[in-house]
UniProtKB/TrEMBL annotation:
UniProt remark on cofactor binding: Binds 2 magnesium ions per subunit.
UniProt binding sites for Mg(2+): T34, D35, D36, D208, D210, T211
Name of the protein: ADP-ribosyl-[dinitrogen reductase] glycohydrolase
Record key words, sorted: Glycosidase, Hydrolase, Magnesium, Metal-binding
Gene3D superfamilies named in the record: ADP-ribosylation/Crystallin J1
Signal peptide interval: none
Molecular function, one GO term: metal ion binding
The protein's Enzyme Commission number: 3.2.2.24
PANTHER family: ADP-RIBOSYLGLYCOHYDROLASE, ADP-RIBOSYLGLYCOHYDROLASE-RELATED
A Pfam family: ADP_ribosyl_GH
InterPro entries recorded: ADP-ribosylglycohydrolase, Ribosyl_crysJ1, Ribosyl_crysJ1_sf
Cofactor(s), names only, from the UniProt record: Mg(2+)
Length: 256
């Protein structure tokens, strides 16, 4: 989960100032956590305490009202609506990574990912985005290779992961849909050589940088054995005590 949060914090600056390069300073004065972190922690809280997910997500929005939520999600949360709204946006994918640690099997992971998504993102593409991301995290943490991860996601979700970043980057534009950002985020991980390069790859596409780096970072963390210490030393001071405590509690319960 720290990988998702680190990706979000690093990508936060580049959502407003996009880049098509992998060469950039990772942290800026403007670097901050956004809705990606808030809602990832909300999902972790839900899994920890077996609460009602709708109420938990909405409680976190009230706690962090200025985190940069999408308009439709924010309206849903502020008016305390109970019904989903057929979203295919990548919000379902950016918040899903904790389920891959709470799940004991891949089937359980897919079930929990669907459950975490469909309270808002009940469009099939919104569910697929969450499931594909969670599956990659689960497969990474259970020792599967990149080729095994690629084959599984392509066969299960019909995502085209044969493209390269070099092919995608010149024409890629800001896209908040699952189908237009989750495959590219996975490719950013697949082409990486370490945790940092996964983050740099995702941001270098010039798209929804914080969310794409959040997704790539979530997958890269278990695959590469964690987030580099020097990076965490920059991320942790930007989080409040409540977020740090919830993530630590989740790690102690499900990761060890």
């Amino acid at each position: 989960m720290w990988g998702a949060i680190a990706g979000d914090v690093i990508g936060s600056y580049f959502e407003q100032v996009p880049t098509k390069s992998t060469q950039f300073y990772l942290f800026r004065e403007e670097s901050t956590f956004t809705d990606d972190t808030v809602l990832t922690v909300a999902v972790a809280d839900w899994l920890l305490h077996d609460t009602d997910l709708v109420s938990t997500l909405q409680r976190y929005v009230r706690r962090y009202p200025d985190a940069g939520y999408g308009h439709t999600f924010l309206t849903w949360a502020q008016f305390r609506q109970r019904m989903p709204y057929q979203s295919w946006g990548n919000g379902s994918a950016m918040r899903v990574s904790p389920v891959a640690y709470a799940a004991e099997t891949l089937a359980d992971c897919l079930y929990l990912a669907k459950k975490s998504a469909e309270v808002t993102h009940n469009h099939q593409q919104g569910i697929y985005g969450a499931q594909a991301t969670a599956a990659c995290v689960f497969l990474a943490r259970t020792g599967k290779s990149k080729s095994e991860m690629r084959d599984y996601v392509e066969n299960k979700f019909q995502y085209d992961l044969q493209r390269t970043l070099e092919e995608i980057r010149p024409h890629y534009v800001f896209d908040v849909s699952c189908q237009g950002s989750v495959p590219e985020s996975i490719i950013a991980f697949l082409e990486s050589t370490d945790f940092e390069s996964a983050i740099r790859n995702a941001i270098s596409l010039g798209g929804d940088a914080d969310t794409m780096a959040c997704i790539a970072g979530a997958i890269a963390e278990p695959f590469y054995g964690g987030v580099p210490e020097e990076m965490m030393n920059q991320v942790l001071p930007l989080l409040d005590d409540r977020i740090r405590e919830t993530v630590n509690e989740f790690h102690n319960r499900f990761i060890g």
